[in-house]
Input
Amino acid sequence: MEHELRSFWRNFFEYNWKFAVFLTLLICVPRFILVLNANASGNYSAIGLVMLASALAPFVFLTKTGRKNAGITKPKSYIGLLLAFIVGLAFSFLLYFAGYNLYGNTDMNWYQYIGRSYRIPAVISLNDKAVLFSVVAVTSMIFSPVGEELFFRGIVHSGFAKSIGDKKASAADSLIFAIVHISHFGIIYNNGHWDYLIAPGLIWFLAMFLISLLFFLFRRYTGSILGSIACHAAFNLGMTYCIFYLL
Output
């Protein structure tokens, strides 16, 4: 039987739920703190390093067999990738309509608050706005979908699945994903102090949990992590469009 963890790491770990928890603490705790700090300072440069570390984790810890079992392989359904993209896009617009109808253009609207990090000038030409949108959209479709999916739906999910099976593992990595995203919205920095938005934060938390389940659904449907990456990239594209053009 081929090992999934590289030989060096087998001296310290078994590939199971304990290893998944170790990785979660290693990556997600610093990320949570860094995002909160970035929301206060406006400097998000360190977040890119977290995404890079997340993306590299399967290649640092896993053998070729381990990476394959974690979904890093060719998809069995390219139509599934298109479907994943459509569903991710649709979910982003549903979340926009929910936020706008409930909270309008206030900071209680998750997209409104997250849009601060995009630094869209109050006065900007249509051409300049289109250029800025393109840059932000392409960036958001690459870095977090690749980094987060290789991490959450890849190595972390597979570690949990070794101990508790796919369904419970999907619930576990989705719960972690949702908790991590409270740092993006839920705990907010406003006018020099921190607030926790209970009702909007709970809606955002549940939305992140559900979209995470969808990401794994398309990983399983396509037989590849590319399915979850496609769904995640589409969600980020839709969110970016809503922030730039609908708010």
